[in-house]
Task: inverse folding
């Protein structure tokens, strides 16, 4: 069958309901409410000027038959602004799969943008690498921070979603922590004699495998070394919340933390001028849409 009215175009706000329906059909186990929540978050978040708010769709005479969600973020890189794009959920109706390359081609056309793929299926790894992507994260470290020593003279503070000021942090990190608290993340600061250290964690579901503790994913810290230094204090807070493990993106076992490293899951790829930091998953699909 020949489809003569297929075109690839930017998703607009008027397409959101139809895109949610398409994604619900394409991803078994994800409810329509899951997609609507994430799309609404994309609708209201800041997006760098000149880049699409939602991504691109294959339009068949007015109806979406394919979608690739894109999450663009402007990040400070020294004195310049670097643009990062999380290539998120991709789905094309079976009858239109021949048109799928149009989506990937238009989505990756900016040479100055760093593209991320943070949730690739294992069977897609070779294909992603042939597209020019490199793995910046090879696996996950399942830490048990409550087993770490608690540094003396430290305090921990949970950040409220609408906090106006966080003592010891600048405006940018304050806004980062409060914004992610509004995304149902757990935003924290640990106050120590050496300084104030910010962290963002998110509850996650481990769907398979023999490691299945009540877990949190580390979404943000300035460096993994800071998480190691504050792990004992964070672990005791999480234990009161019923969480045992904190999952950390890693390329191997993390000195100073008790836990297990695996490369069976967690690989993450990038393509572009700026290699992502391991301890930064802010403003990605994991946060906007959920695990």
Result:
């Amino acid at each position: 069958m020949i489809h003569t009215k297929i075109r690839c175009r930017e998703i607009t706000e008027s397409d959101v309901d139809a895109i949610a329906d398409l994604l619900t059909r394409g991803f078994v186990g994800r409810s329509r409410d899951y997609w609507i929540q994430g799309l609404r978050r994309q609708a209201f978040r800041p997006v760098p000027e000149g880049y699409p708010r939602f991504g691109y769709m294959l339009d068949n005479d007015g109806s979406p038959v394919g979608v690739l969600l894109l999450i663009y973020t402007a990040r400070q890189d020294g004195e310049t602004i670097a643009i990062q794009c999380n290539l998120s959920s991709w789905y094309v109706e079976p009858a239109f799969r021949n048109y799928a390359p149009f989506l990937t081609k238009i989505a990756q056309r900016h040479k100055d943008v760093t593209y991320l793929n943070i949730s690739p299926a294992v069977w897609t790894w070779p294909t992603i690498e042939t597209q020019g992507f490199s793995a910046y994260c090879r696996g996950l470290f399942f830490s048990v921070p409550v087993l770490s020593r608690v540094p003396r003279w430290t305090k921990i503070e949970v950040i409220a979603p609408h906090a106006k000021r966080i003592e010891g942090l600048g405006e940018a990190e304050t806004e980062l922590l409060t914004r992610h608290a509004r995304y149902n993340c757990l935003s924290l600061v640990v106050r120590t004699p050496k300084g104030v250290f910010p962290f963002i964690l998110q509850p996650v579901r481990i769907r398979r495998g023999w490691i299945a503790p009540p877990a949190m994913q580390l979404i943000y810290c300035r460096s993994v070394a800071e998480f190691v230094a504050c792990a004992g204090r964070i672990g005791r807070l999480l234990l009161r919340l019923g969480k045992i493990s904190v999952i950390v993106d890693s390329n191997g076992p993390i000195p100073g933390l008790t836990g297990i490293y695996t490369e069976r899951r967690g690989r993450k790829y990038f393509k572009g001028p700026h290699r992502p930091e391991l301890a930064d998953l802010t403003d990605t699909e994991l946060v906007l849409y959920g695990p």
The chain has seven helices and 14 strands. The chain has a mean pLDDT of 92. The first helix runs from residue 16 to 26.
